[in-house]
Amino acid sequence: MKKAIAIRVRGIVQGVGFRPFVHQTAQRHGISGSVLNDTEGVVIHAEGEEGDLEEFMRELHDNFPPLAMIMSIVSEEIPLIAGAGFVIEESRITKERAAFYSPDVAVCDQCLSEFFDTRNRRHRYPFITCIQCGPRFSIVRDIPYDRRNTSMNPFTMCAACTAEYRDPADRRFHSQPNACPECGPKMSLYDNNKKLAVPDGDAAQAVVELLRRGRIIAIKGIGGYHLAADGLNDGAVLELRKRKRRPFKPFALMAGSIGIMERFCDITPAERRLLESKERPIVLIRGRGRQVSGYVAPGLSFFGFMLSYTPFQHHLFSLDPDMVLVMTSGNISDEPIEHRDETVFERLGRIADYFVTYDREIIGQGDDSVLYVVDEKPYFIRRSRGYVPAPLLSSESSRSILAMGGDLKNSFAVARKGFIIMSQYLGDMEDPLTLDVFKKTVQHFIKIFDAGPEVIVADMHPGYITRQYAREMAGEGTQIVEVQHHHAHIASVMEEHDLHAPIIGVAFDGTGYGTDGSLWGSEFLIAGRGEFERAAHFSNFLLPGGESAITDVWKIGLSLLYQAFGRDYPVMARDADAGNVIEIIEKKINAALTCSIGRIFDGVAAILGISSFVSTEAEAAQLLEEAALRGTSRIPLFTIPFSGTSEIIINTVELTEHIVSLITGGMKIDDIAADFHQSIIQTTAAVCRSLRERTRINEVALSGGVFHNRILLAGIIDRLHEAGFSVYTHRFVPCNDGCIALGQIAVAKELLR
Ligand code: ZN
Ligand code: ZN
Ligand code: FE
């Protein structure tokens, strides 16, 4: 029997070859009808024999193109029109505007082989792309996803490109960034004085030679400029550190093949899959034997490596396959990645000797994504290029929500019916340029996802700029919801795993504003989505000197020592500076109370003499973890004493005393570092067991930036599994404050129900 159905497909289905796929599938199954894009997704009219229609639907579900991401397919029966053939119709604008965009992905193999084919008309053309690959999110200005709404708009396609664009059988059919050397963007190499360094065209050869000579080159990529330098050349890498004013924070590396990376690193199968994925993130992999420059990641045993992903990068590595490049975001210290041609010479002029640029605007800027793998499971550190703005599925929300996230490592999020979209990594709001980019990106997301908020969610920290901005933005009738920081951490894990019943949430964090006005950060919560109870935490200590303690970690060490031993503390220096800090502690002026475990890591690193000052937030903790990797902990393990019933307090003083006893007992620093990690692991599991006894809850969620620590993450998961807990960790967002916006949405959705 013949039947006709109307099918509505939502998800990433535009600009990824979905319509030609529907067209071909329909023809294969003898289906007549039509397919078109509208502002909600794709609409299909299909007529055919019942069995054929079923087959057709099954194939839509199972075999969609690689970049497509189907969120829902809804179909309903309609009257027969009895037309013949299957056609692709003109795009249509509907009332609902909810189209999605593919993230920017790596150039595909087919395009790459054309790129290196001397007979191809796009031979060595850096903007070669097709419906399966290349830029998307970074070039979108507005909906619907049509060329005129992208930064390709100024480029008029030549006859050859137009023919490809219009041919449903061509792999560049409706590929919005379609271009060629005749009609598309052009790449050029400039020197530091904005003078063209080589005639138009083949900049790659010149760039490789400059890199070999130790020069630093700003290269415009997908989401912004990279700063490139020869990663095997100490002089070049050190110079880049000096000019970027970045003494410690590791640089990302790029290689042209896995084989080259393996000269320097051990790569596990899961790491390899990530490295080779179309998202092409930076993956932290363990170094070994032969070394890249010691200035790439000083003191650390993991390197952030990625494979080349743009045609131009592939070109560079084809000219020198042995090359390893530092490819770090083009910015000065913590400013946002530079992506504008108007300002790049001014902003990066003191860093880069040369500039590779092109005449297409980057609209959605973004850094490379960063992941690490523990027990063959991937975890995000930074979710950005390649992943943003793919939607995360979510339970129904009746209202449109904007969640601001936190002030540090910010990503915000928008939520509408049935989906959440996280923004790219934006950085720290105390930097005025970052704040500016944050505000612009919020507005950009509202526009391209048509997501004007009815509800705005922010962290409850009274000093947070994001909270301030939420209040500025909220218009008449906009509801504001405030969420406690660590509740958001745990709620984000719940959202990712679709958990609804209360769980034990362990939020180990740098800092977050608590409901009692102190700085929290070692929280064990009994958390539902809508509410939580603070069930356990480390006992408070003072952060002397306010903000300065974050960089002068020796002050935290001193504070811990003073808390345990008074003025007669047995280790660390007792000089004039120390005297000043002790005075601050005793008078409690300019000293905040905190229980942050991130700060405990800082303090312990200082007590052990591993770190005194840090240039970046996690530096002391990372070096402490490195020491622990070198050391071995002793048996039996030390469980930090804790007490209390309705609110368990873990005794920070006894932890300090324990560490000091190991030092004065003559134990090696690396072994003490290992012992410290094991104590935290042991204690965390013990506290969870104690909470389970009281609450009967057997599910534990882990969140907070401290879980970037591999020893801690793997150790706590292991120990909890041994104790019979179900353990939930992040899957789609980082455990650091990059997850806050997702958690804020989860809490707001519950409160609005
Ligand atoms: Zn391609
Ligand atoms: Zn062309
Ligand atoms: Fe946090």
Notes on the protein architecture:
By secondary structure, the chain is α/β, with parallel strands linked by helices. It has 4 domains: 2-101, Alpha-Beta Plaits, CATH 3.30.70; 187-371, DHBP synthase; 392-483, Nucleotidyltransferase, domain 5 (2-Layer Sandwich), CATH 3.30.420; 503-735, Nucleotidyltransferase, domain 5 (2-Layer Sandwich). It is 33% helix and 22% strand. It has 22 helices and 31 strands. The strands form 5 sheets. Strands 6, 7, 8, 9, 10, 11, 12, 13, 14, 15 and 16 form an 11-stranded mixed sheet that branches. A 7-stranded mixed sheet has the order 28-29-25-24-23-30-31, sandwiched between helices. The mean pLDDT is 94. The structure holds zinc ion (ZN) (2 copies) and fe (iii) ion. Residues 157-158, 160-161, 179-180, 182-183 line the site of one zinc ion (ZN).
What's this, in brief?
By secondary structure, the chain is α/β, with parallel strands linked by helices.
Tags for this entry?
single chain; Nucleotidyltransferase, domain 5; 11-stranded mixed beta sheet; 22 helices; alpha/beta; 4 domains; 753 residues; DHBP synthase; binds zinc ion; 22% strand; binds fe (iii) ion; 7-stranded mixed beta sheet; 33% helix; Alpha-Beta Plaits
Beta-strand content: 15-25%
Cα(first) to Cα(last) distance is: 45 Å
> What is the total number of structural domains?
4
Largest sheet report? 11 strands, mixed
Class from secondary-structure proportions = alpha/beta
Cα-atom radius of gyration:
27 Å
What is the total tally of β strands?
A: 31
Mean pLDDT: 94
CATH topology of the largest domain: Nucleotidyltransferase, domain 5
Flag low-confidence runs.
none
- Small-molecule components bound: zinc ion, fe (iii) ion
Continuous helix count: 22
- Report the helical percentage: 25-40%
